Amino acid sequence: MTTALSPNFTLEELLHSDYALRKNIDNNTNDPSILTALAALSANVLEPIRAQFGPFFPTSGYRCPELNRAIGGAANSQHMKGQAADIAIPGATRYELALWIEQNLDFDQLILELYTPGQRNSGWVHCSFVERGANRKQSLTYPPATHQYIPGLHA
């Protein structure tokens, strides 16, 4: 049985984590605020991306605190609130994806992570959405060479 969050995304795929499975971490949640946030993320970020670029599966969605600690996520990661997903689209560079999101969607935080220009499938895009209150529209790049966040998107 699957639980639809939006027309094309399910709760199960936004809870799925290969790392959690390997480490025997239960990454499920029944928290209503997290489920509401995941539905808002799906409707406002994931669905428009799918409409533009075609079908894809987020590489990371919700992370329980134990999983977030195990992978070295930020202590205040929006993944733990159900507000963020990491995305890699087949057929588009991560920079192209991030630029499209920045120009077309409302978002809280957009990070082009570990993308190397010329290496089409390097890195991923982190995008968060806050359903209540104003989204910050903060764009950052986290390049592999410096491992420091830089304001704006940089290829």
How would you characterize this protein structure?
- By secondary structure, this protein is of the alpha+beta class.
- 32% of the residues lie in helices and 14% in strands.
- It has a single domain (11-151), classed as Muramoyl-pentapeptide Carboxypeptidase, domain 2 (2-Layer Sandwich), CATH 3.30.1380.10.
- The chain has helices at residues 11-15, 18-22, 32-53, 65-70, 94-104; strands at 84-87, 109-113, 124-128, 138-142, 150-151.
- A five-stranded mixed β-sheet has the order 1-3-2-4-5, covered by helices on one side.
- The longest helix is centred in the first third of the chain and has 22 residues, at 32-53.
The overall average pLDDT, rounded, is: 95
Write down the Rg.
15 Å
Count up the domains.
1
β-strand percent reads: 5-15%
Low-confidence stretches: none
CATH topology: Muramoyl-pentapeptide Carboxypeptidase, domain 2
Fraction in helix: 25-40%
Distance between the termini: 41 Å
- Which structural class do you get from the secondary structure elements? alpha+beta
Q: How many H/I helical runs?
A: 5
**Biggest β-sheet description:** 5 strands, mixed
**H/E topology pattern:** HHHHEHEEEE
Name a few traits of the molecule.
155 residues; five-stranded mixed sheet; Muramoyl-pentapeptide Carboxypeptidase, domain 2; alpha+beta
